[in-house]
Amino acid sequence: MMRFGFGRSAHLVQIAKFSTQSNKFSAEKEINQVLYERGQQLYDTHIPTSFIQKCLLVFGSSIMSISDVYRHDMIAVLGETTGVSAAKKIREKMLNDPEGKSILDERPRINSATLDYDYLRSLSPNTLGRTYLAFLENHHVTPDSRREVTFVDDDSISYVIQRYREVHDLNHAILGMPTNMLGEVAIKWVEAMQTGFPMCISAAVIGPVRFKPKQRQKYVKSYLPWAIECGHKAKFLMNIYYEKRWDQDLLDLKEELNIPEFNSESD
Question: Which residues share a beta bridge with 249?
């Protein structure tokens, strides 16, 4: 469902009226183009920008992301301004999968307003929901920390990128990776191989440069081989409707998704 912060013109209504499921995104693309040319918002948080402005955002966010890996706001901007092509391919993969398509149709969000913490807490410790909640509590993180997409000039693509951000912590929880540098780089390798986002690829390649000798030894011995195997063998994680699987046994889910076990003994 497309969101607009203003009234639709007769032309936009006509486009939408004759769109069918098969050409839904073609119609949406035409609507986006009309609105973009008018300098209007395509969704609630959208900030229209020109090609030159986007180039400046790419340059500035790249410099800041490299110089300070904890500038998550700049990393998010870099992801938006360089990840549109990859996001389109992700959308196609999701459209070709029943579960992925349901996600695109229903557009669920993962944040404090949508999560039922009491329900998650009531689940068995071995379930996905309880594991995710434990991850949030143990690492003192919140699902509200993910920045809203603003610089993507396509409503459906903006959702794909937003969804990627909001399932990142779920990837950590399911794959059993910590939030330290080793865990983050490992997750980025998995995400890079599955999504093709340039931001993920650069983080996976550049991140190890900052490792200390002992970290680098662990990385080469166990984290990197596992991450590559997982990224290659695991099912496409963006197609998993996690919100409908909170009560699923985590081991069963990992087996279904073909996720290899991480050998912690070699860590």
Answer: 127
